[in-house]
Design goal:
The chain is built from 15 helices and 5 strands. It has 346 residues and is mainly alpha-helical. It has 2 domains: 97 residues, no CATH class; 234 residues, MetI-like (MetI-like fold), CATH 1.10.3720.10. A hairpin with a 6-residue loop joins β4 and β5.
Length: 346
């Protein structure tokens, strides 16, 4: 999966219009300067050589030359720091173990990894808060809907879930900001814009402002909330019809014990699958939410990179999100085995 993403991302952004060398040096740069920058970045090489060099940069294990600064494989200690030399290949080449190098921003000349390390914690906090909101309220509402099947509560929950699944993120963000941070601002005291830290009005530094995460988190959690409600309801109805549930009822177990001890654990597999997929999607799909609420996460970083044709930033962000998706899926497989022993046997 990662290899497929790398191939698509590299060739997609290498056929888009725009001259990175001119972006870095400005529109008034002379041709000699632009040619020198292209040579330094390896943009004057054939595309297949550029691709090999890109793979070499982002791979933890990579091949480099210890001398010859004009070579694309030259071991630039500033870019690859920290790294460990493993063994030599021939006279001048060495294999090193390093942190993946996602290149440098065309605009700021900062490492993409540094930019992402600053922005990702805010996106992770926003996605985590959104998923927590969706899971807690979604599972509770789903269980109550299953227990009160075909009641007014159940039908209302289903209608709201369908509405939540069909609501586009960017429209939901604008709507939530307009209603709760503009029309009802005197009651909610919420702001349309703001990040986790707010600058003090008296110039005494920054302070933690947790209320700024409320609207973005709820807005981002609307769609996964709807999915969790639907899945929990349908999964619970299926589990409640099983023979072991009827046996538990015949033994005289309390409804709470039946739900908590027998039904809940067996009904959670589809929900966990949806939560894992949505958690990775929230990291990628927070772009519109972060942009509308001015939440300084990787969504804003990606939009700024696209607006400025800063391709290394956009490429690095996409690869970073892809790695997170793979890691989350691996953990979900492990959790499946813990919750359902039948999966371990298979």
């Amino acid at each position: 999966m990662l290899l497929g993403v790398i191939i698509v991302v590299f060739f997609l952004f290498n056929v888009l219009p725009g001259d990175p060398a001119r972006m870095m040096q400005g529109q008034r740069a002379d041709l000699a300067t632009i040619d020198a920058v292209k040579n330094e970045l390896g943009l004057d090489r054939p595309l297949y050589k550029q691709f090999f060099n890109y793979i070499n940069d982002i791979s933890p294990l990579s091949l480099h030359e210890k001398s010859n600064t004009n070579s694309l494989l030259y071991l630039n200690e500033e870019n690859y720091k920290p790294f460990v030399q493993l063994f030599h290949v021939g006279q001048s080449k060495v294999v090193v173990l390093k942190q993946p190098y996602l290149r440098r921003s065309y605009q700021s000349q900062r490492k993409v990894s540094e930019i992402l390390s600053e922005a990702f914690p805010l996106t992770a906090l926003l996605a985590g808060a959104s998923m927590l909101f969706a899971c807690v309220f979604g599972i509770v509402i789903g269980i109550l809907s299953a227990l009160k099947k075909d009641s007014i509560f159940d039908k209302t929950a289903l209608i709201i879930s369908v509405f939540g699944m069909s609501l586009p993120s960017f429209f939901a963000a604008i709507l939530m900001a307009w209603i709760f941070a503009f029309l009802l601002a005197d009651l909610t005291h919420l702001s349309m814009f703001g990040s986790l830290f707010t600058v003090d009005n008296f110039g005494e530094g920054e302070y933690l402002d947790l209320k700024n995460i409320i609207l973005p988190a709820i807005t981002l959690g609307i769609r996964p909330l709807a999915i969790v409600v639907e899945l929990t309801r349908s999964s619970f109805l299926e589990v409640l019809s099983q023979d072991y549930i009827r046996t538990a009822k015949a033994k005289g177990l309390s409804p709470f014990r039946i739900i908590y001890k027998h039904a809940l654990k067996n009904a959670m597999n589809p929900v966990i699958s949806a939560v894992s997929g949505w958690l990775a999607s929230l990291l990628a799909g927070a772009v519109f939410i972060e942009y509308v609420f001015d939440w300084k996460g990787i969504g804003v970083v990606m939009v700024d990179g696209l607006e400025k044709f800063d391709f290394p930033v956009v490429m690095g962000t996409l690869l970073f999100i892809s790695v997170i998706l793979v890691i989350i899926n691996i953990f979900v497989d492990i959790i499946y085995g813990i919750l359902d022993p039948r999966i371990r046997v298979q």
